[in-house]
Design goal:
Layout (H helix, E strand, L loop, with lengths): L1 H19 L11 H10 L2 H7 L12 H4 L2 H4 L7 H4 L12 H12 L19 E2 L5 E5 L4 H6 L6 H12 L8 E4 L13 H18 L3 E5 L1 H8 L5 H4 L4 E3 L2 E6 L2 H6 L4 H15 L6
Parallel strand pairs: 2-3, 2-4, 4-6
Antiparallel strand pairs: 1-3, 5-6
Bound molecules: uracil.
The site of uracil has 11 residues, from loops.
Amino acid sequence: MAVADDKVGHVRAYLEYFRDMGVHEFYRNETLEAVELSAVVEAEPVAAAIEVRVDVAAPAISVLEALSPTELNIAKLVSLTDLAPMPSARVSAELRDAALEAIRTDIGDCTRCPLAYGGRRKIVFGNGDPNARLMFVGEGPGADEDEQGVPFVGKSGQLLNNMIAAMGLRREDVYVANIVKCRPPANRAPEPVEANTCTQFLVRQMDVVQPEVVVALGATAAAYLLGVKQTLASLRGQFHQVRGAKCVVTFHPAYLLRDPTKKGDAWKDLQMVMTEMGLKGKG
Ligand code: URA
């Protein structure tokens, strides 16, 4: 029942999103209530109702994966470097705050992707020093961030703050953002269409701040930043490139909270960053 509820919530967010986009195909014969009812009674009719090939046996339903990427061309994994040309000029230091504010204004009360319909409360834009040399990118806001509108303020955020302090920096010295700015329901990973819709703003934030180093927190952040779907193990221990910055991939703090034995490995990743940036670490 709980799984069915999750699936219904996920499908509902997509249906409402497409309805607002003027796509009424999904409603041809079924009302949302009918979809909901049939989903609760039996998973199979949900797929029929929305007329896409959804693998109802899969643990998490992925409506967009079931749609043809060639038709919609929105479910592709594209690196942020390839998403848009690099800016020809750098925003001067004193204008960066205002430039970031302008991006936030452009986002507005965003309804560009289904996450707007998935129960999000606040858009979590990102925060920190507009002139930061170091940027951290997570996956997407959790419950605490959704409530406060600030990235990494919950338990993961406390650990991230400790990691930053161990590097000899303060949280306000770095810039922190996420792949998506709205909380995915039930803290699931962002869908490609959600990430691909949202990262245009992260690209602009990165182009304003122009950090020297970007740390990807977890495999999902790494996948969307770098446009590759690989294991964390295969991405760690080397410098990648993202929008002119060096990119290091490490464990997501939430993962480290679940498995503290990996903290030593995460520290090795951060030491790579410190050496690159000439940071001496705490005390
Ligand atoms: N996890 C993330 O990936 N981002 C946040 O902002 C908080 C938790």
